Input
Amino acid sequence: MTAMPLDPDTATGRRRVLAVDVVLAAVLLIATLFLAAAQQSSTGGAVALVLASCAVGSLALRRLRPDATAAVIGVCGIAVLGLYLAEADGSATNEYSGAVQGMLLATLAGLYAVSAYGRPLLALVALGVALAGGLTFTVTSVQADEDRIRLITMNVVVVSVLLSGVCSMGRVRRSRLREVRILAERNLALQAEKDVSEERAAAAERNRIAREMHDIVAHSLSAVIAQADGGRYAVVADPEAGRRALEVVAATSRDALSDMRGLLGVLRGDESDDGRAPLGVRDIPALVDAERVHRADVEFTESGDLGQLPPSLGLAVYRIVQEALTNARLHGAPGNRTRVSVSGEGGLLTVIVEDTAPAGWASRTSSPIPRGGRGILGMRERAAIHGGTLDACGTANGFRVAAVIPVPEEHAARPGSARAVGADEVEEEAGRARATTWRSESR
Output
């Protein structure tokens, strides 16, 4: 794993960067003074040593203020070079040796710092100034003899390669820091995207659980309440009817408890306690039979190949039918007739639940519709999850729920098993007359 560089943009990072650079500057300053201890004493050499010490000391800010550090080193270097050139005799080399060596250390460290952390244009200027100063000192420091040209050439090559190499190392460091910064920003973006995805997944899971809870509780409790109310009045005149009502209450409550345990098992990540297969289309006939206990006029028709549907799609169809039957029982007219139709033909699964009020039922002003329900919204969401649509609207004398859901290709019925349902026919079936809306979508 690659260590992350210190970040000078934070307070802690700035303190650590400053501490490291202060130690570096102190070490180089001690080295400069140690090298100057053996030089011959002179006024110009002492001033040059002070200037070199200032240049080395400015390295304490080489990462926090790289441009200012380069400027200080440049000014001090030009001043030291001017003092050296002012003494043209041969003794100047020994008198300025400590200052020159200190300036060399400061120049190399400062050039690397401005190349890595400063402005690119200033880094090029600093490189040019360093090359000019170094080459000038190299040319003037070589004594006149037969090997002067060779020594000057060799020193020029060494100084040029050294300074250019340090500058290149700084630029490589700059590129590395840029890559690390881009990776850090990308990681932050990916983490933010992951957080958003997790929030969306959690919200979708909460909605799914809310739909399951609504379907289980609303359907079961409405059945229990209806049977309890009916049994309370029937037990006096017909004890057997009261007993049957209590049996329905007990059976419905057990089914609801079993469904609730299964849902809680999913939340805990456990398997269902009773080991039952998920509810599906095959359970709709039993659901309709249970509904006939509350009201006799409920019909169910089934067509097409419905035996190989995915479990999630089968559960969605079951819950849509369950919610539509619950709404028909709670909000339908007394004595209404309900027709349930499920067909799987032409690669489409069509679910229709339609209840019709008896003749003479003109209005529902005496039985207002509850507001704020989420039943129809939950049915639409279940259909939309599988790429289908659901239409719920009032008819001339009742209410109708029609869902059209595509069946995955691997589960679709083979050609020839049933007559295909055309798209126009499905649309016509799903969009029957909506002129009269005596029942609200907020059921």
